[in-house]
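1st attempt posting a full record on here, be nice pls
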Amino acid sequence: MVIKGFLVGPLLKKTFREIGEDGITTLAASAAYNFFFSLFPLLLFLAPLLSLIGDSQRTVGWLMSQLTSVLPPDQLKAIQPVLDNVVFSPSAPRLMSLGLLLAVWSGSNIFGTLMSALNTAYDVTETRSWIKQQAIRVLAFVVSAVIMGVSTIVFLDGERVANWIGGTLHLGSAVILTWKVVQFPLAFAGLVGIAFMAFYLLPNVKQRKGHVLLASMATTCLWILATLLFRL
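the predicted structure (as tokens):
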């Protein structure tokens, strides 16, 4: 079978061979380790932030419901007291500064691992300066954090925001109905944007934006599918 000039059979064989030669499973394990290592610093920043803009009890409940899909019960029992102490602590706003610094450091390590993994996948060596690499890693983390943070706030309290906008502009129920329709395409677009940024900026190689966009959309679809299967 041929799709746009590519023989599907040989292409799949070459893909699986490259996966083995590049050690993708090891790189994936490294990225997963860095992700979970950054979880507590991110929570240390995110939890007090959300507690300032929303209902604290609802914030803890929402965070725990999200963690249920990625952590075993024993670890959830260990995290619950930490979240309670952070969110309901009188010094929660001061914890945000410490959490922000730790989150930037640990979060940038995730993109550092992805940078090395993509360079390996492209069979290229890293020639950019150390400062430029760190800047790209931090930029990728900050942009991703902003997109995920806005998405989290919107999904957590999007209906109230839509009600406020509708009441201010006298748009009534039309805003709520529109929001219910567009929220999921917006979330998908945000994930595609994060993937596009990672594929385009992290590897030390020039690429065609059209190819990167297609890869980003495919990655997002596979990520959503894997998330749903993992939850099952």
